[in-house]
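Lab meeting, item 3. Inverse folding demo.
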């Protein structure tokens, strides 16, 4: 799922899984389906790398899962997000350097993660106009996948590697 050289640690020095992967070991029947869903959600072709990382950082701004923030700060930097963009996104703020598409992506991701209800009519209308239905739906899948992951991390109080 991570390729040969991920930019973040997902195994410790002993080779044990870290992050959300460690809590999956308590429910072995969910490991394969979880990785299948995680892979499908994160590899959606409709989402550009910057928008995808901004959406994930929006979820971390709401759910405060240190491991996801750790991993996606590194991933975000590796795909061209600035330190300012990463910091602002992880704190629920928009950077002025974002494109309109990135602003809409971040805004709906944050609203979905925070709202626990329907997307507002104004956000839906703007998302359709700027992103289209398919990309908006892709963002919803990504957000829901990361909300699930953040909840797993927060149940286990799983932090970031030192």
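The presenter then showed the designed sequence:
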């Amino acid at each position: 799922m991570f390729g040969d050289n991920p930019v973040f640690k997902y195994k410790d020095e002993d080779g044990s899984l870290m992050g959300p992967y460690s809590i999956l070991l308590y429910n072995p029947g969910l490991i394969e389906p979880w990785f299948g869903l995680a892979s499908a959600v994160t590899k959606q072709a409709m989402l550009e790398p910057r928008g995808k990382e901004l959406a994930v950082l929006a979820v971390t701004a709401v759910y405060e899962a240190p491991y996801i923030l750790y991993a996606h700060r590194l991933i975000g930097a590796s795909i061209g997000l600035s330190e300012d963009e990463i910091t602002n996104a992880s704190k629920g703020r928009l950077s002025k350097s974002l494109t309109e598409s990135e602003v809409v992506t971040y805004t709906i991701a944050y609203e979905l993660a925070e709202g626990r209800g329907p997307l507002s009519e104004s956000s839906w209308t703007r998302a359709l106009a700027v992103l289209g239905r398919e990309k908006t739906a892709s963002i919803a899948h990504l957000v829901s996948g990361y909300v699930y992951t953040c909840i797993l991390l927060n149940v286990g109080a799983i932090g970031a590697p030192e």
